[in-house]
Specification:
The protein is of the alpha/beta class. It folds into three domains: about 200 residues, 3-Layer(bba) Sandwich (FAD/NAD(P)-binding domain), CATH 3.50.50; about 110 residues, FAD/NAD(P)-binding domain; about 100 residues, FAD/NAD-linked reductase, C-terminal dimerisation domain (Enolase-like, domain 1, 2-Layer Sandwich). The strands form five sheets. Strands 1, 2, 3, 4, 5, 6 and 16 form a seven-stranded mixed sheet that branches. The chain has a five-stranded antiparallel sheet with strand order 17-18-21-20-19, with helices on both faces. Strands 10-9-8-14 form a four-stranded parallel sheet, covered by helices on one side.
Length: about 450
């Protein structure tokens, strides 16, 4: 008989927590997972899945217009936000049910309460019940940051945006990262007047400069407004519900919806980690070793609470590696090198490996190959919008160390190309591959 109620107690049923629970149970562990809200976490409930469905919906705005150039007699079409919203939320409900079924079929006990850490081997539920476990895994994800500015309570975050009663006529999005640019594209295509407000002069920090500059250029031409180096002073709300965003410099901006996309922070408030001596970083994230173990040997953490890479596939791999290590007698770590990422803006961009600036700093001498072209569909549709592909090569070894692109289906193309970068293939390997014509992806093997 075990000295504990469970072999593993997981706090948080998001992507990392569900994967860790399922795999640990498959290894024979007795597992429980506590979730105070809904199963599926940020990605399924209020993140990448519903957002991508909104992006699909928004794309029809241009697709319907373009169809006329391809011979389709498409009439002027109206758009109903409520229909898209409700269908997206219905899909979220369906996916949550699948996640619950996964836990149930693997004999993982799901506890629908908030759980906090009460000691190295003890958790306390909101009901007051205490449960013991040989190991505790913290997988509570991250939470949107709200700026400390007067009137901030009038704004929303990405948590609430999926539940709006109507599509706003005017929306101000504060932030310059992937969430800001993705929702700017969504609402612009759905007919909103969009303004992005950014406190710095840089969008999408960390992505290749040429690619992010192209997105800014395209977004501006489409009609999205940008306000850089803007420091908010206060937000006022009129009786009719409209908002006015005031800045320390410049004129205020009026809108119907104000959305904050100003970053995410590890979701650890009130979790009780101090009771087990779990150390946090200067940024408020849980410190972990290569095996996701915290400073308390019985407590582990995976996903966005560790602030390693805030990406769903990374959290899933961390959860799987943890379960294999602790319960599967197969110690494994996660390789964070060459992790591909994408921004589902309009158009989308994607990248893997080093940017041009990073490669020059780390390698010294590099070769850069680009293809700046108009996709075939855009040509016939009468759109001037151009795609840009960029390959970064180590001049000494001829190894491809980075691929970055913006254009239709860029993330879909990059996923396969990322395998080549991860494998350390050379520019010559790309050149030796016969092009698949006509396609946009063929540009990757034709770069000069």
């Amino acid at each position: 008989m075990s000295d504990y109620d469970f072999d593993l107690f997981v706090i948080g049923a998001g992507s990392g927590g569900v994967r860790a629970s399922r795999v640990a149970a498959a290894h024979g562990a007795k597992v429980a997972v506590a979730e105070e809200f809904r199963v599926g976490g940020t990605c399924v409930i209020r993140g990448c899945v519903p957002k991508k469905l909104l992006i699909y919906g928004a794309h029809f705005a241009e697709d319907l217009k373009d169809a006329r150039r391809f011979g389709w007699n498409v009439p002027d079409c109206g758009f109903e936000w409520q229909t898209l919203r409700d269908n997206v939320l219905g899909e979220v409900d369906r996916l949550e049910g699948l996640y619950r079924n996964t836990l149930d079929s693997n004999k993982v006990e799901l506890i629908g309460e908030r759980a906090t850490v009460a000691g190295p081997h003890t958790v306390k539920l909101a009901s007051g019940r205490e449960i013991t476990a040989k190991y505790i895994l913290v997988a509570t994800g991250a939470w949107p940051v709200t700026p400390d500015v007067e009137g901030a309570e009038h704004g929303i975050t990405s948590n609430e945006v999926f539940h709006l009663d109507e599509c706003p006529k005017r929306i101000v999005i504060v932030g310059g990262g992937y969430i800001a640019n993705e929702f700017a594209g969504i609402f612009h295509q759905l007919g909103s007047h969009v303004t992005i407000v950014n406190r710095s002069s840089t969008l999408l920090r960390g992505y290749d400069e040429s690619i992010r500059d192209r997105l800014l250029q395209i977004s501006t031409v489409k009609g999205i407004n940008f306000r850089f180096n803007a420091q908010m002073e206060r937000i006022e709300k009129d009786k009719d519900g409209s908002l006015h965003v005031h800045f320390k410099d410049g004129d205020p901006v009026s809108c119907d919806v104000l959305m904050f996309a100003t970053g995410r922070t590890p979701n650890l408030d009130g979790l009780g980690l101090e009771s087990a001596g779990v150390e946090l970083s200067d940024k408020g994230a849980i410190k972990v070793d290569d095996y996701s173990r915290t400073s308390c040997e019985s407590i582990y953490a995976v996903g966005d609470v560790t602030d390693r890479l805030q990406l769903t596939p990374v959290a899933i791999r961390e959860g799987h590696a943890f379960a294999d290590t602790v319960f599967g007698d197969n110690p494994r770590t996660v390789d964070y090198g060459c992790v591909p990422s994408a921004v589902f803006s309009h158009p989308p961009l994607a990248g893997v490996g080093m940017t041009e600036a990073e490669a020059k700093n780390r390698l010294g001498t590099v070769k850069v190959y680009t293809s700046d072209f108009r996709p075939m569909k855009n040509v016939l549709a009468g759109r001037e919008e151009r795609a840009l592909y960029k390959m970064i090569v180590d001049a000494t070894t001829d190894r491809v160390v980075g691929l970055h692109m913006i254009g239709p289906d860029a993330p879909e193309i990059l996923q396969a190309a990322a395998i080549a970068v991860k494998a350390g293939l050379t520019k010559q390997d790309f050149d030796d591959t016969v092009a698949l014509h006509p396609s946009m992806a063929e540009e990757l093997v034709l770069l000069k």
